[in-house]
Amino acid sequence: MFTIKDVKASIDEKEILKGISLELKPGEVHAIMGPNGSGKSTLAKVIVGHPDVEDPEGEICIDDKNILDLEPDERANEGVFLAFQYPVDIPGVNNAEFLRMAYNAKQKYHGKEEIDPFDFNELVKDKLKVLKMKERFLERPVNHGFSGGEKKRNEILQLLVLDPKVVILDETDSGLDIDSLKQVSEAVNYFKSQDKIILLITHYQRLLNYIVPDYVHIMNDGKVSKTGDKSLALTLEEKGYEGIES
Amino acid sequence: MKEESQLNPTLSSTDKRYNFQRRSADLFEKEGFPTNKHENWLYWTPDTFQDAFITPQIGAETNTESNEGIEIDNGRIKSEGTYKEIIVSTDMAAYSDVHHITNRVETSSLSLLPNSFFEEFIILDIQQDHKDPIHVTIKAESHEKGSVNTRILCLVREGVTANVVVNHDCIQGSDTVTNTYFETVCFKESHLELNQVFKAKQNVNVFNSSIHMHEKASCTHVSYTDNAAIMRHDTEVNFHGEEADLKLKGLNILSGKEQFYNHLKVNHHVGNCNCFQHFKTILTDSSTSEFSGLVFVEKGAHGTDSTQLNQNLLFSDSARALSRPQLRIDADDVLCNHGSTVGQLNPEEIHYIKSRGLNEEAAKQLLIYGFAEEIIENIHDTLTRETLEKQVKQKIECMKND
Ligand SMILES: Nc1ncnc2c1ncn2[C@@H]1O[C@H](COP(=O)(O)OP(=O)(O)OP(=O)(O)O)[C@@H](O)[C@H]1O
Ligand SMILES: [Mg+2]
């Protein structure tokens, strides 16, 4: 269970999130849609503990544990994963090496031994296959010189390797070609079947054809203004945000 | 001003050597020590070390064991190594055909001193391909007041592909300085990978480098500096033939009160050559670094592509990074870029790494390592690269962040 309870947050002394509450159960997919600037990415930032967000209020709990006061790395190791809207590139740091370090950080957090490099290699190769990514991606610096779509796919590779409990995808679909979109959707559906919790931020109904959400929330000016099922996204496509609010 | 050897071929080696040293000494006499009135000497001048610089340590012995490869101890050949593709010589007269023997680099009059004081004019003449690294150790070990002067000419003959790894090991007393002059000639269609690793314990180290690039020659030069109280590098590049390609890369990690002064002058005498300079410095405590690079594109050197990039990562309020990339272009159709950055780690990048489960300290170290790795990855020889990577990793782990 992942609960967001009355979360308020400001950036640069401006209140962006004005009280958000959501409840996500294992195996559920929730989609968040909303106009530009409504606070969707800010919600994602609050969940992962981005330093831009000043003293957020409320509670964010995985099962019964409030993670709002934890460091971003601790939250990650507790099982939160955000696929960033704009993944950062890290020149000079080898992608495979980075994945292994992240994997081992989680192992250590849970008091487990580091993975054998050979075993890890096998594990990553399996995940690459799922995404139909080429092995040469592993030898390149993290996201450096990757195309927009490649960066998004690399986020999903990290997701598959780190195997979190709660997955937030911030506009992962934008910038993906049709084939990539299908592969990424397959990966997400696999997670759904594993009883993970999935929060999708998107502007496009198209994604929801591949990943069928259990709930669709519309966010407006820092609040959830409407919640519905999959059909809400279709209505939205037809009427636009202004039409749906009236 | 510059001495291009037009030595009379009938002179004996001793005469040639004498003339060359005499002329270098005369020039130094005329010019004198640099002062902070010279634009290339604004932040450090050798004042208190002047005596040491002009007191060459003749015949000083080192007491270290030889390793494999070519070894040069206190300016003299100790071991010629066992590379059959290379002639190691001290016979200047045998090299009258090499027209680029210079006795100074433009940015530093101190560069005249090793050319006045050398005990041996050491020539490494690479005549055949040698793709595995040729190891050269240049040792300076002295505890007496004075200077250890080393003069090396490295020739990569036409069409030859070579990989040279030079380790500079300096162990000095508090009144000792090292002054090295390393000249590299890349002949037509040769390919050189040259890695220079500087390790010094304390004190003043001056390294002068003169690089000559001939038609269609290519060279990647990677330098790494570790641990020197004061390190001064002066590099002069001359493009003599078209379509030559030179990459100059450097990494320095400074701590304590270490100072690193890096001066370069790149002369594009002819067109259609590429030169890419990329120098990075990581500074902690109250260390100082200076980068000053001038790219000069002569009239007629069309189609030149010359880039300078200097990036500095600062980890302390009392550390200083001074950066002055400069261009002088007298030709058309030229592509020249220069840039410099001085900054700290990007919080967005730190956050990204943390959000994958690595803690703050690990995230920072990873980013610093990534910054350094962009230079080190240019070393193609796996063993050399991995050795350096390990060293840099250890160094970064020891760094106190914030
Ligand atoms: N670092 C920041 N500094 C100042 N304002 C910010 C910052 N980050 C976000 N904001 C502001 O917060 C508001 C919400 O931004 P957010 O990125 O959450 O929107 P969004 O719903 O994700 O929009 P989009 O659909 O365009 O991605 C916007 O008005 C934005 O300008
Ligand atoms: Mg957004």
Please provide a written account of the structure.
In chain A, the strands form three sheets. Chain A has a six-stranded mixed beta sheet with strand order 6-9-10-3-11-12, sandwiched between helices. Chain A contains nine helices and twelve strands. The two termini of chain A are 33 Å apart. Chain A has helices at 40-48, 72-78, 95-109, 117-130, 136-139, 148-162, 178-193, 205-210, 230-245; strands spanning 2-11, 14-24, 29-33, 53-62, 65-66, 80-83, 90-94, 141-142, 166-170, 197-201, 215-220, 223-228. Chain A folds into two domains: 1-81 and 185-246, 3-Layer(aba) Sandwich (Rossmann fold), CATH 3.40.50.300; 85-163, no CATH class. The model of chain A has no long low-confidence stretch (mean pLDDT 93). With 402 residues, chain B is an alpha/beta fold. Chain B has two domains: 18-241, no CATH class; 345-402, no CATH class. Helices cover 18% and strands 43% of the residues of chain B. The N and C termini of chain B lie far apart (47 Å). The chains are: A alpha/beta (246), B alpha/beta (402). At the A-B interface, helix 2, strand 7 and helix 3 of A face helix 4 and helix 5 of B. The complex binds adenosine-5'-triphosphate and magnesium ion (MG). Magnesium ion is lined by residues 40-41, 85, 170 of chain A.
Give a nutshell description of this structure.
Chain A is α/β, with parallel strands linked by helices. Chain A is built from nine helices and twelve strands.
